Amino acid sequence: MNTPQSQLIGWGSLIAAAGVSYYYARQNINERRKAQEFAGARPSEKLDWRARIAQQEQKAAAGEGSSSTPAAGQVDPSKSGGPSAPK
C-alpha cells in the first residue's frame, strides 16, 4: 500500500506538473490572442450575446444578395417538399 509520504510526493508532483502546464499553455494562448488582434482577426472589444447576434445579422443582411441559402430559422417554400397550402 501507499505510505503517506509516497502519496504526498505523488500529489505534490501532480500539482506541480499541472501548474507548469497551465503556465506555458496560458503564455501560448495570450501570444496567439495578441497575434490575432494585431492581424485584425480578433476583435478587441467584448460583446454580450445581444450585440453579437446584432452584428451577425448585420453581416448577413450585408451579404444577403450574394447568398442563395436562407438565413437560420427561415425555410424556403420552394425547397420544403411539403404542400404549398394547407387544405
From TrEMBL:
TM stretches of this protein: 6-25
Extent of Low complexity compositional bias: 54-65
Keywords of this entry: Membrane, Transmembrane, Transmembrane helix
Chain spans, region Disordered: 54-87
PANTHER family named among the record's database cross-references: EXPRESSED PROTEIN
Protein name: Uncharacterized protein
Source organism: Rhodofomes roseus
Lineage: Eukaryota, Fungi, Dikarya, Basidiomycota, Agaricomycotina
